[in-house]
Automatic annotation (TrEMBL):
Residues 15-86 form the HVO-A0261-like N-terminal domain. Residues 125-253 form the Methanogenesis regulatory protein FilR1 middle domain. Transmembrane segments: none annotated. This is Uncharacterized protein. It comes from Haloferax mucosum ATCC BAA-1512.
């Protein structure tokens, strides 16, 4: 049997029999025990065990079945795959509003929390990130667009609980928000722990990292034609690490314009 055929058979069996493999990975079981635990017929268990044995993913010990090393590894990778597919299914409608060439790491999507926009109340998608901001000590972010209320929201955090802020803003967006909210932006830039960076590079998404006393969270606010389509959030170390790396790349090539923004009032 060719390696391609073996790989295809492994995928097919895992797709059909992963529930059985997952059950015996917890502890060895007999077939009657599996029938009771999984609530299925004995014939289904028989076929499932036969299939898993045929690809060397389970082995029998004194009438009990347990995963082989191959079975444990295969189940771990299959679980990662199904988790990613589940995340893509939940986040897909929001992700489709991003430019097609946007690079979003699977590390960020694995286990991501999804907050879609309500067509009747679009800003409702921001509630989770606003609640997080209210308990955060620092926020770094990319701003390819901005709502006119953002200066007020950020200033509330700065004044209310000493929030530190660092934002990389597209040049045209910065100019527009200064034109619309010059006094608020000047006041915001005057705080010691607030910094603005200007970039001429088109930012692919509104990516941010918020730090709390007990952890960190990476997030992405997705817009379309200036309207909010949803928010994605993930506090896993891998997601935060990816977000920091992306943010730092844009931050390193941007220009600090905090002082000039403070003088626009």
């Amino acid at each position: 049997m060719s390696s391609l055929t073996q790989n295809g058979e492994l995928r097919d069996v895992l797709h059909k029999r992963s529930v059985i493999l997952e059950a015996v990975s917890d502890q060895p079981y007999t077939k009657p025990e599996l029938t009771e635990i999984l609530g299925t017929s004995r014939s289904t268990i028989d076929r499932g065990i036969d299939d898993l044995e045929s690809i060397d993913c389970v082995e029998r010990h004194n009438s009990r079945y347990a995963p082989t090393t191959k079975g444990e590894l295969a189940l771990a990778e299959y679980t990662k795959y199904t988790n990613i597919m589940d995340s893509l299914s939940r986040a897909g409608d929001i992700l489709n509003y991003l430019p097609s060439d946007s690079s979003v790491s699977l590390a960020f999507l694995d286990g991501v929390s999804v907050y879609p926009s309500d067509p009747n109340v679009p800003d409702s998608a921001l509630k989770a990130s606003d609640d997080l901001l209210a308990i955060s000590t620092r926020m770094n972010g990319l701003a390819p667009t901005a709502l006119s209320t953002y200066p007020d929201t950020i200033e509330g955090g700065v004044q209310g609980h000493g929030l530190s802020v660092e934002i990389v803003v597209e040049s045209n967006v910065l100019d527009s928000i200064i034109e619309v909210r010059s006094e608020a932006m000047a006041r915001l830039a005057g705080y010691e722990d607030v910094e603005f960076y200007r970039t001429d590079v088109e930012l692919p998404y509104a990516l941010w990292i918020m730090e709390q006393e007990d952890g960190e969270t990476a997030g992405m606010t997705v817009y379309n034609n200036g309207g909010i389509q949803g928010v994605l959030m993930n506090d896993s170390p891998a997601a935060v690490s990816w977000a920091r790396k992306v943010y730092q790349g844009y931050r390193d090539n941007a220009v600090n314009v905090t002082e000039s923004v403070a003088q626009t009032e």
